[in-house]
Amino acid sequence: MFILLRYQIQELVFPLLLSILGICLIFLGELLFEMGRYVFVNKVPLAWILTLLLYRLPLLFVNALPISLLFAILFSIGRLEKDKELVIMRTAGVSNRKLLMPYLTIALIFSGVSFYCSDKIMPVVYPKSELLLRKIIFLSPPPEMVQNVFVREKNRVIYIGRIDLETQMLSHVMIYELQDDKIARVITAESGSLQGHSWTLRAGLIQEYDKQGRMAYETGYQQMQFHTEANTQLFRSERTTSDMDLAQLAQMIRDLHRQGIPTTSYEVDYYLKMTRPLTPFLFVLLCSPPFIRAKMQHKYYFAAGCLLFIFVFFGVSSWFVSAGRAKVLPPVWAAWLPVILFGGLGGLGVWWADRA
């Protein structure tokens, strides 16, 4: 059985590498074509363009892997069928289920590779890629400035007129502390600075109000320390879930919960980070059983049917994700139901193929 497994893997290596290389080259060529004008018109250094292509490779690999692996396996099965090797294997007592196991194992391994790339590599290189792309387009990195930020905590609302994320400086800060849904104290500051959860506020006022809403006390200050549970990473308005691994995204969701900010969309993305890497395994699980059972003259029709399945899979998955973001489904089900549905169909396909 080990000899058979090794032989099937050897048959799979070349078409898989060729498929991944071909799809990545197509996307890289398109990106290079788009960036070409910046080299000649804006005099952007070629090294920047090549660095951008390098940063995009993990994303291209993850996107290309499901289709590349599927068609590499279908090509391998088709060649074994054409050369009558599948007939010999079946005559020797090897069932279709045993023939499928190496392909499913390889698909599961590559799903793990896809998860590692998505969770560990892409959060590192994707922000660098986006920053370099903006630098190429504008020839200078945009200022990391955020304006008009509102942060809500349990009994507090914070307004910040402007945050310089490079220097960690604040301007025009107003803090409303609430009691029984009424303003009990207001703290203002002309400027300040961030040091994690401890902020330094400068040149401001402290005003306290009674239960009737009348000002009962007012004093000024030159500098004061202010503690907050607000996560300063949330101020980075352009940061997306693609920039974070699972642990960082989970922490951000907890921080948003504490501030009373809805997190449904982020929760959907959190579970999608677990399910999307399973796409290569699902493609192989659902498409390879009917393909390995089909007769040689019908395999082309099954290959075309695989393209239709890919379209249906992504369509159904997008519907579930949209339902999750709209709070029609819980986030965990929005991400996992397509996996359960198509995984169950694939399991039935393996059972059906083994009955041949």
UniProtKB/TrEMBL annotation:
Alphabetized InterPro entries for the sequence: LptG/LptF_permease (IPR005495)
Entry's Gene Ontology cellular component terms: ATP-binding cassette (ABC) transporter complex
This protein's record includes keyword Cell division: no
Regions that span the bilayer: 12-33, 53-78, 99-116, 300-321, 333-353
GO biological process terms held by the UniProt record: lipopolysaccharide transport
Compartments, record wording: Cell membrane
Membrane topology annotation: Multi-pass membrane protein
Keywords, comma-separated and alphabetical: Cell membrane, Membrane, Transmembrane, Transmembrane helix
Stated name of the protein: Permease YjgP/YjgQ family protein
Protein's organism: Acetonema longum DSM 6540
